Amino acid sequence: MNALLLALCGFNAHGALRAPVRPSAVSMGPIRAIKRLIGIQKQNFLEANPYWDQSNIPLNTFKNKAPFTGKVLSVKRIVGPAATGETCDIVIKHGGKMPFWEGQSYGVIPPGINPKNGKPNSVRLYSIASSRYGDDMTGKTATLCVRRATYVDPETGKEDPAKKGVCSNFLCDSTPGREISMTGPSGKVMLMPEKDPKTDLIMVATGTGIAPYRGFIRRLFVEKTPAAAAYEGQAWLFLGVANSDSLLYDDEWQAAKRSFPSNFRLDYALSREQNNKSGGKMYIQDKVEEYADEIFAKLENGAHMYFCGLKGMMPGITEMLERVAQSKGISWEEKLEELKKNGQWHVEVY
Ligand SMILES: Cc1cc2nc3c(=O)[nH]c(=O)nc-3n(C[C@H](O)[C@H](O)[C@H](O)COP(=O)(O)OP(=O)(O)OC[C@H]3O[C@@H](n4cnc5c(N)ncnc54)[C@H](O)[C@@H]3O)c2cc1C
Ligand SMILES: *[C@@H]1O[C@H](CO)[C@@H](O)[C@H](O)[C@H]1NC(C)=O
């Protein structure tokens, strides 16, 4: 089947299912409608000039005192039945009024009052999991990847719904049309270095820490962006979760791997399904350690390394890197200083 036929059937050239053509495609004029139908529309209408220039990125456009009102378009559970906890993909419409760059976060102000202080609930941050163009590539939506925060009583081992997380449950329980009070976009720590398109990216995630990388990967390997056209480096994703049912967006990573086998690389650490070298549980630092030589070489060569997910991931990572550096006769303290100074080191954990 040729690409045109595939596109008309709702598949892109790599055989992956595309978002269905929306009815509005009919009302947008014949040329754009046809371009959309056959999927040759470029994602180039939300770019800086040059496209990698980060000096005017949107930042805190909407603040606590005057938040933006977005609207939920969809909420989907994206983990399998045996997953640990529930994680949802939530698409929110901002209508183009709250633009952002890949790697930034939105704030969400859940409705209601905090009983602890009698004040309105405070803002929670969520990494944006789509590119700036949104999953429908209109530039008018953003996706969040949210894990429901639950509370398990340490004594009874039972869930206590009275203590469940306010904002994550509000988001995961939302239905299409629900209005959401939002702030941001915020954050500059997790931006991509696009100036040198040969730069390797090493992206390390636990759980919902995957969110910013989904934006990166869509920008580099799914969309027709100037960044994608220029990219010659290797983007390497490490994702750590408990088991295969807890994997996030696996089909999308597999598709990227098929389409760009030399530019995209993927490794999973499944702590409850895989064992590390000494027979213990396979945590994210154990998987990264398997490739420590390559990773140190890439960093030496200017790669940018990213960490996102639960705070608890960093001690294990740091301990591992220290140990590997020591075995190579390198001072990790000095190396880390140098990486930070060069802007190669990006950490956003919560
Ligand atoms: C930069 C940044 C990016 C983030 N990105 C994401 C993301 O992409 N996806 C994501 O899911 N999260 C993300 N987070 C985390 C997110 O901001 C929230 O912290 C998270 O969703 C929990 O908020 P909540 O309102 O649901 O829980 P809260 O109501 O704030 O409660 C926090 C925790 O305390 C527990 N708790 C509540 N009451 C009690 C009690 N009485 N005793 C003991 N424990 C109690 C809750 O169960 C919960 O686990 C990010 C955080 C930051 C800072
Ligand atoms: C593997 O797991 C064991 C037990 O949890 C741990 O002590 C060890 O540091 C881990 N890593 C490697 C590389 O063995």
How would you sum up this structure, described in words?
The chain is of the alpha/beta class. It has three domains: 3-38, no CATH class; 68-186, Elongation Factor Tu (Ef-tu), domain 3 (Beta Barrel), CATH 2.40.30.10; 201-349, Nucleotide-binding domain of ferredoxin-NADP reductase (FNR) module (Rossmann fold, 3-Layer(aba) Sandwich), CATH 3.40.50.80. The chain contains ten helices and 13 strands. α7 (284-290) packs parallel to α9 (313-327). Residues 1-23 have low confidence and may be disordered. The structure holds flavin-adenine dinucleotide and 2-acetamido-2-deoxy-beta-D-glucopyranose. Flavin-adenine dinucleotide binds next to β6, β7 and α3. InterPro entries: FAD-bd_FR_type, Flavoprot_Pyr_Nucl_cyt_Rdtase, FNR, FNR_nucleotide-bd, FNR_plant_Cyanobacteria, OxRdtase_FAD/NAD-bd, Riboflavin_synthase-like_b-brl. It comes from Diacronema lutheri (Unicellular marine alga). Its EC number is 1.18.1.2.
